[in-house]
């Protein structure tokens, strides 16, 4: 079928839990021109049956090997949906936490990048120091993983060390330095100067193994 409309822009925000991705995604939806759909991890987890949770939100460490084989399939489904929206001219913002620290390497990020071949993607690394992450978790009551005598629980350390591998981005923002609104403005400015090749094009060229 002949393309009769412009492709929708895709912005993927990759970072740890509590790094500020969701706030940036919401600000993009509220302030950018046009329709922006959020097809991120939280929405897909809400659609996932309880027995398969946390689904694509499975944290690093290989602790749920029973559902691990499903994770690449769920990611593939999510990215196929992202691609479908873009091809229909709908803009998409995605807040997600990619990592490959499963019981075995899954090569999910590379596979996802290949599924967006030919589409306009801005891949944004959302950084935040672990001290600020911990403060945000305590302030929101999300400290259930804290181990007595440990200021930074091991799962949180794993997120911090694994989520930005291999570190190939079009741009990065630090939410300890900039507010959500400021991060959105930085992203807006970057969209006017999309790098060629994009980060997702470079990731797609890597081996998935």
What does this structure look like?
This is Chloramphenicol phosphotransferase. It holds the Pfam family CPT. The protein is of the alpha/beta class and about 210 residues long. It has one domain (about 10-200): P-loop containing nucleotide triphosphate hydrolases (Rossmann fold). Helices cover about 40% and strands about 10% of the residues. The protein has helices at about 20-30, 40-45, 70-85, 110-115, 130-140, 155-160, 180-190, 200-205; strands spanning about 10-15, 35-40, 90-95, 120-125, 170-175. The protein has a 5-stranded parallel sheet, sandwiched between helices. The termini are far apart. The mean pLDDT is about 90.
Strand count:
5
- Could you estimate the helical fraction of the residues in percent? 25-40%
User: How many angstroms separate the termini?
Assistant: 34 Å
Q: State the domain count.
A: 1
CATH evolutionary superfamily: P-loop containing nucleotide triphosphate hydrolases
Protein name: Chloramphenicol phosphotransferase
Give a short summary of the structure.
The protein has 209 residues and is an alpha/beta fold.
Features:
Chloramphenicol phosphotransferase, single chain, globular, five-stranded parallel sheet, 38% helix, Rossmann fold, 8 helices, P-loop_NTPase, alpha/beta, 209 residues, CPT
Secondary-structure map:
Layout: E1 10-14, H1 21-31, E2 36-38, H2 41-46, H3 70-87, E3 91-96, H4 108-115, E4 121-127, H5 130-139, H6 154-162, E5 171-174, H7 180-191, H8 199-204
Parallel strand pairs: 1-3, 1-4, 2-3, 4-5
Organism: Nostoc flagelliforme FACHB-838
InterPro entries: CPT, P-loop_NTPase
Protein name: Chloramphenicol phosphotransferase
């Amino acid at each position: 079928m002949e393309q009769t409309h412009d492709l929708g822009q895709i912005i993927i925000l990759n970072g740890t839990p509590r790094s500020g991705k969701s706030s940036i995604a919401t600000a993009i939806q509220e302030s950018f021109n046009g329709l922006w759909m959020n097809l991120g991890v939280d929405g897909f987890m809400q659609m996932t049956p309880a027995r398969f949770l946390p689904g694509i939100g499975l944290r690093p460490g290989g602790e749920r090997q029973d559902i691990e084989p499903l994770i690449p399939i769920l990611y593939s489904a999510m990215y196929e949906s992202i691609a479908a929206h873009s091809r229909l001219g709908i803009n998409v913002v995605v807040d997600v936490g990619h990592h490959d620290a499963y019981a075995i390497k899954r090569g999910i990020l590379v596979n996802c990048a290949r599924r967006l071949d030919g589409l306009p993607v801005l891949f944004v690394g959302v950084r935040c120091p672990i001290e600020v992450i911990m403060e945000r978790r305590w302030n929101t009551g999300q400290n259930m993983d804290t181990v007595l005598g440990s200021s930074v629980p091991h799962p949180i350390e794993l997120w911090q060390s694994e989520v930005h591998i291999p570190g190939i981005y079009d741009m990065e923002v630090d939410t300890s330095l900039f507010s959500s609104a400021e991060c959105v403005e930085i992203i807006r400015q970057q969209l006017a100067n999309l790098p060629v090749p994009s980060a997702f094009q470079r990731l797609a060229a890597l081996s998935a193994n």
